[in-house]
Amino acid sequence: APQGNNVPNINPRPAPINNGNANVAPNVPNGANPAVKKSSAIPELSNVGGGQAAYLSYAYQRPNLPGVYHIYPDETYQPKVVIPLPSGTVSMNRPVTASDFLLLGSQVWNVKTGERVSSLGVKIDHGDFAALSPDGKLIAYRGRGNDSAPIAIFSTETRGQTVELEARKGDARLEWLGFLDANRLMVVWSQWNDTRDNAVQIWNAESGEGLSAFGLGPFTRKDMSVSPDGQQMLFHTSDTVGYVALSSKKPKPTPLPMP
């Protein structure tokens, strides 16, 4: 394990973030902002069933000392960048596809330079649903425990909410969300439209337009991954391995031949 001594480029702890923002009221009734775009109609599923989906997981390095976050770019395990952790318990999210950025609580950091490039006025706690676009410009967010709330899209440049996605049907539960590229946001639901099935939606996070959606059977976690270019999703069940072309207007799970 890497040691904490002789660590280069230690950045000073940033000033505390104001966790309130009078101009931004995501997921709060009567907090409508006329500048926030409303999402279009929820895209219809291009199929039903299709096997298991799952929670997409990705690795991040845990700090070996309190108060810092180490970035290890190679197998030498020598930290090249050390990022101060905000106070309290915070979430750590890296984009699904290749990116130089990291979402640490409500802060966006450049992991190559160790620079904090943005911070939102909305607090993102551990356990909340949050995703950062690979260019570091958009954040998708929904607080935990509020299933009926829309998904809010924020600009890290203006620090304000730009889009509100009404993406849910019935009593569906949000399971995961992540950006496939700078604009496309993938949202995974379970118990879709009052059934046992799951649904995967692709949205344009800048405009709020629903691009496509497809159905998948009940899933277990860690049975799904997205290609590095964000174009395909691979999934597996107990007896099936398949893929989905995420760029298609009517995505459909396709089984792969098994040896």
Describe the structure.
The protein has 259 residues and is mostly beta strands. Helix content is 0%, strand content 34%. The protein is built from no helices and 19 strands. The strands form five sheets. A five-stranded mixed sheet has the order 1-11-10-9-8, with no helix packed on it. Strands 4-5-6-7 form a four-stranded antiparallel sheet, with no helix packed on it. A four-stranded antiparallel sheet has the order 12-13-14-15, with no helix packed on it. A hairpin with a 5-residue loop joins strand 8 (129-132) and strand 9 (138-142).
Overall geometry comes to globular
Radius of gyration: 19 Å
Side-by-side strand order of the widest sheet? 1-11-10-9-8
The poorly predicted ranges are 1-30, 51-66
What fraction of residues sit in β-strands?
25-35%
Q: Which class do the helix and strand fractions yield?
A: mainly beta
Sheet with the most strands, sense and barrel status: 5 strands, mixed
Question: Kindly state the mean pLDDT as a whole number?
Answer: 74
Distance between the termini: 39 Å
Helix content: under 10%
Give the gist of this structure.
With 259 residues, the protein is an all-beta fold.
What brief labels describe this structure?
five-stranded mixed β-sheet; globular; mainly beta; 0% helix; 259 residues; disordered N terminus
Topology:
Blueprint: E1 37-38, E2 68-71, E3 81-84, E4 92-93, E5 101-104, E6 107-110, E7 115-119, E8 129-132, E9 138-142, E10 151-155, E11 161-165, E12 173-179, E13 184-190, E14 198-204, E15 209-216, E16 224-226, E17 232-236, E18 241-245, E19 254-255
Parallel strand pairs: 1-11
Antiparallel strand pairs: 2-3, 4-5, 5-6, 6-7, 8-9, 9-10, 10-11, 12-13, 13-14, 14-15, 16-17, 17-18, 18-19
